[in-house]
């Protein structure tokens, strides 16, 4: 082989005939070796992907952080879906245990449905889908930057022969927190002061009202969003650091779709959560109590 | 190096470069007769009318994706980002492991970006329509979208037909390609594969003309529309090596290809990687042997494990494809054949080795198998016919054909067709219709898929046609005509007859036996090899050609005999 190779180069020929001769000599082993190498590379990639999926499934929680802001999504329970925190201080928690979906009047807890998940590590996104008999609610949670997170909801009205699509879908999403001071709704935005218990001291034993961690804004947008979408629940008046304040532990957003397009993913609403650390709202009149339905 | 009339001087040395323009007619350009011009206009007009009639029809899923693709471009959003996002949604929602969205290279972004913005101007409230996979959900598409989307495809079809005409010197390629039923279906009612094919055909044409830089650019353009033309890069390199061309020509071609690809990929390289990953992970099926595992045939013993088995078989698809391609390249390198035939066999190697061959992939082979059928005749005519009949039949059964009506129904009926989004009724939902027959549907689909696989394999292994370069200058008198004058260079001859002959531009070459004999007679009948100063192979070919012309009356006007490389 070496002598034939040297002969190829020592004979006076132009380059392309030499190339041709070389190829004729070596193309067969190249084909075989190339195939083996390719098999090896692909096998490794497949094993790596499988290991990553197994690790995610074991832990059951998907978390991302950007600066001091973090979100975590619990796949194995109906709470913390997601939870948004700032410096490990809770800002808001989405609870599917207390969220409700209604299709043509048939109501059920959002948690009581089939669930599927996926995640995009590069874009810091979590995808969660709840599937009912003839509907799907798709939730996409994105950690946008170090002070903003976004939760986008879409729906699918499913229909097939023998299982007609729904004519109306209602979604009531429960947002929970220990205490929000001065909750207000202005147009499409909910604003409140975020208060968390002093670490290591139960709130019931606190002698002073805790200082707010900052101000949270939840802005809704989308085809099903309107100023009537917000419902502040469990409102009460309480003593704050600067006097009497209103407080709540729950916010519900309601979205309604009528005559949905069948078998098409349609946007429902997007909730953008923005946090201003260290800020507080100016003290104003206590808001009108709107009982949660 | 620019092409010139075939050299009549013997090569100075065994390794001297061989000419590239063997496959082309003798001369190019020149005046066209009025009758010929009218014929071409009539063919083009008929092709346009047929395509216009097919405007409201389309593949329900692919056209919906193309519509969303338009919305992406209109909003200056990368379709790759939408693809990634929807794939995550699909996995979480349990629709599928991936959402089959725009999964091609980025050249169509540049082609369709202005057209998408025109569409957005006409329809400012147009928004996404994200249909669930495997459902008949279809948007109501305005005709303006159909026109804007299909316009580049029609132009590409015209370009391919024109190139076939230039490569053969007759209008037959123009007619056969534009009016081919399979081409009409793919280009008129489906997808933009014709733009990719234009790049491939143009590359082969430019190589034949010696314009290797332009060949690289054209092939890169095609490869950046869909990936298949990238397979032809080694083919052309091997062809240039076989032709003993200067190394700088190979470098020119490769550099032009790479630079054009890099420019076109531009900022979309990350999305391109996502797309390549998607294709690597796809399960197999379509017109391949893997389709057996994708079917629900009663005798498919793997049926209970169909999903995992299909995925396991498909996992071997990528390395198998590369191995098959390498074998294909070896085959075309060691055998003597023309560049267009090398291209055809490369595509056949792809069809044989790929785990997934969708119905529209066969369009890439149509111009090249047509060239083989035109130049060599005989069994190659049957190869050409099968190469469009089998995929067309597969499309009719597999899609099936009545699903092309969904888009038309929604366009014409508007919201009155909404119930079709969940009933899927087309009006042809009867068991007597083969694709709705529980007994016939799957077996026919599998059989047609295996048929195409076998056709590709047989084409790959069949002895390459060896045809003479019948485009040498005429040097002998025609037996029944006045003394001919040699064709001046630059004169287009559709007929194979000398340009000085009376009414030469008005004759129809394929119907004229006399012109075939004329073409044969132009080759020296008794000159010994090399005596005319020409290539020795051509002289031998000429001798055989004259003998054959005397025996047969059905030889083609430009292909009187068989020999060559």
Q: What does this 3D model show about the protein?
A:
The complex is a heterodimer of chains A (293) and B (565). By secondary structure, chain A is an alpha+beta fold. Helix content of chain A is 18%, strand content 49%. Chain A has helices at 2-10, 15-59; strands spanning 61-66, 69-74, 83-86, 89-103, 106-109, 114-120, 125-131, 135-145, 148-157, 168-186, 189-195, 214-221, 230-233, 236-240, 243-258, 264-277. Chain A has a 16-stranded antiparallel sheet that branches. In chain A, a hairpin with a 2-residue loop joins strand 8 and strand 9 (148-157). Chain A starts with a helix and ends in a 16-residue tail after the last strand. By secondary structure, chain B is mainly alpha-helical. Chain B contains 23 helices and three strands. Chain B has a two-stranded parallel sheet. In chain B, helix 1 (34-53) crosses helix 7, helix 2 (60-74) packs across helix 4 (107-122) and helix 9 runs parallel beside helix 11. At the A-B interface, helix 2, strand 6, strand 7, strand 8 and strand 16 of A face helix 3, strand 1, helix 10, helix 15 and helix 20 of B.
Task: Provide a brief overview of the structure.
Chain A has 293 residues and is α+β, with helices and mostly antiparallel strands.
Tell me the layout of helices and strands.
The complex is a heterodimer of chains A (293) and B (565).
Chain A: H1 2-10, H2 15-59, E1 61-66, E2 69-74, E3 83-86, E4 89-103, E5 106-109, E6 114-120, E7 125-131, E8 135-145, E9 148-157, E10 168-186, E11 189-195, E12 214-221, E13 230-233, E14 236-240, E15 243-258, E16 264-277
Antiparallel strand pairs in A: 1-2, 2-3, 3-4, 4-5, 4-10, 6-7, 7-8, 8-9, 9-16, 10-11, 10-15, 11-12, 12-16, 13-15, 14-15
Chain B: H1 34-53, H2 60-74, H3 79-93, H4 107-122, E1 130-131, H5 143-168, H6 172-178, H7 181-189, H8 193-208, H9 212-223, H10 232-242, H11 247-265, H12 269-281, E2 285-286, H13 291-294, H14 306-315, H15 317-334, H16 339-353, E3 356-357, H17 366-376, H18 379-398, H19 405-413, H20 420-423, H21 441-461, H22 513-522, H23 536-551
Parallel strand pairs in B: 2-3
